[in-house]
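User: Quick sanity check before I run a bigger batch. Here is a single chain. Can you write out its predicted 3D structure?
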Amino acid sequence: MTLIKSISGIRGTIGGLQSENLTPIDTVKYAAAYGSWVKQQRNKENYKVIVGRDARISGEMIQQLVMNTLVGMGITVIDLNLSTTPTVEMAVIMEHADGGIILTASHNPKQWNALKLLNNKGEFLNAEAGQQILDIAEAGNIEFAEVDNLGEIHKNDAYIDLHIDEILELQLVNAEAIKSSGFKVVVDAVNSTGGIAVPLLLDALGVQTVKLHCIPNGEFPHNPEPLKEHLGDLMKMVVDEHADFGIVVDPDVDRLAFVDEKGEMFGEEYTLVAVADYVLQNTPGNTVSNMSSSRALRDITEKHGGTYTASAVGEVNVVEKMKATKAVIGGEGNGGIIYPELHYGRDSLVGIALFLSFLAEEKIAVSELRKKYTAYFMSKKKIELTPQLDVDAILKAMEAKYLNEKIDTIDGVKIDFAENWVHLRKSNTEPIIRIYTEAKSQEEADALADRIIREIEGIAFSS
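Assistant: Done. Predicted structure follows.
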């Protein structure tokens, strides 16, 4: 059982001991710290925070604790109840709120939950703000409101519809072409809130939808990370239903992956590549993804005359770099699409709408679209952390070992070889070291990852 306190938010497993897991006491502690931070940002009489959640079994309990803690601080809460991460982000903007909290542990299994924290722009907090909240929580001298100044809770279940309305208004979303194409799509929403939002979007675009695992009850039918090894049901149903393609989202709908009409994975790394291809054809410009993402985005960006930039891992880092380079599209290779014309947040719904527009205009099958892009293959492995592992020392040793290669240390250690690369970093969300590699074949990518793991183990056991 685990509690991870980081600038990315507060993430942990439900149950167990206080301070070691995400217990009710820990939930209140960090919600209060966030509320205190919100009030420090601007001196005003009334404060407003948006709160929404995915469909996790623990979600309702955690949401009530969070909302009533904020009420106790004199903050008005707009309760979106079951929602998506990008919808909460949009709601912060549209409500002119002071911040937002999304209760979701993203792709983690059902025993996990988390408080993901937003600023008044509907964007994730930067490192400085995140550290301030952790410091407030540890200091413990948080001031609550007197009885006549308690906050209130206002329910608003309209924001998924409003979010979809904003997507339909985007210039590059060709709703008429999509409707006339007669698409049939299978949707796997892992029994979370994508089961509400994705079918609503597809219905608005005139797409025939076959629902798979779309009941938002939090009973995940498979590991919720949208990877090939977890998606056998979706891959089979796409073929059985003679669908044009399949869609899978994670529990909070900020990661997006596709299955082609043959039941094969499009590749989560290529979600961003394809959407970027469409956006860049219509609005040439720059792109950004994190340094664990495929080189394929760089290739397609340069093809369209733009400049590609890599950021440190983490949505806030991608967004910061996108703003600095005036990127027209960006995101993360795990299927996260950030389209600034809508908002600066990973958003599967806008990704789906842009992908459908691309297919409708090109009149091309999903499998044929995939063939347009350079074939890179990734291996994503991990090493479980133990108290004996000195991660910083291991990374330093790996950096020294490959000193003659192109090295980037803005986030862990990335080693760029001529034909492939490896990125090593400590996860912000799990007690692991991530080892990502990319090469021109799956065998080469896997072999590189396995070699690096052996080298890390050799360093760890020799120290």
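The first helix runs from residue 24 to 41.

User: Great, the batch can go ahead then.
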